[in-house]
């Protein structure tokens, strides 16, 4: 009878996989010895594997290039990174190595843009697409960027007031886009996205506020739906509705030449993950071309704003199982040395699934467990492992430490969790390391941030150190 943890994984999934391999009884991630990381830096530990950011960008660009070639598509493709997924300098630096552009969401994003411009990592040849609901500071920052000569900064109009605010703040001519307020799936609590302008209102809005505006030129239509890019009747129906608006706009506004289909590519959340990226891109390009040819209008240039897809699969977290609590005859709680609420908030907030695997002891027998965090909060647990409600891990032993890893956690977790700030129950933010490869392919590591100290939290809380 096969009762070892390695048997369970091998019987349930195809293993090893591209990024996950085994060395004796310990797990490797992109050939990184994870137990060596633990021995060097301790646990809990967060890490960012920087090369994966470039890997995913290059994959997407190749998929789009292939689809454009197959369908003889006349438009160009532009990859933008959605900065809200992870604003860290090391993420932007790695992403911008790949000839991409960026998309912003709020006023302080423009401060990051200015910093990158000073460093030469961004230039005036890079598009800066400005999404989000724009109030005074955001409008002023956008205006300052454009007034400073960055003509490829394109604010995406989210509400009717913004066109007047931007026209007043910007000195000369400028380009704009309009965001479509997509209709949500029937299961949602509301019918239409709060973001953007409704399908039926875009043409009247253009005629009323943009056609006669001597400074603003409409260049882009922006389309995004909350559920992401999926092969469903709902997605294709919303895309076709968007294309109808683009075609109507193009016939009365020759300057609109770009379609932004937003983000929404999924990241791998299970060893059983199966998503045909190339098929989806092929079909999107094909549908756009067919619709435009039937209407006898030029096809648009394509922009995407991939955030989670860009950075998600670069991140990981490692915890140690501290103790096991047998709460009744069925439930065994493995207590980790950190908190899910603070370090992986999406698991708590939206029941997000990440790949979870044991780091060591793969040759030991396994058992069914629940995972609990350190906070005194009943919601601080994780039990949605892959395709099962239960979690299986090597059996707990007081004399044999067990480490577990959560993978593809690189998007949103730090910003939602409040990196460097207060944490629930004052559980400290773990140490964070950056992993890279040198020119010879050798793995290098450096500490980005140490684990929070009591002094750090007391200072935030206003306690006098004396």
UniProtKB/TrEMBL annotation:
Protein name per its UniProtKB record: Arginine decarboxylase
Domain of life: Bacteria
Gene Ontology terms: biological process: L-arginine catabolic process; spermidine biosynthetic process
Organism, scientific name: Sinomicrobium pectinilyticum
Cofactors required: pyridoxal 5'-phosphate
Keyword list, A-Z: Pyridoxal phosphate
InterPro entries membership: Ala_racemase/Decarboxylase_C, Arg_decrbxlase, De-COase2_N, PLP-binding_barrel
Lineage of producing organism: Bacteria, Pseudomonadati, Bacteroidota, Flavobacteriia, Flavobacteriales
Residue span(s) of domain Orn/DAP/Arg decarboxylase 2 N-terminal: 69-311
MF (Gene Ontology): arginine decarboxylase activity
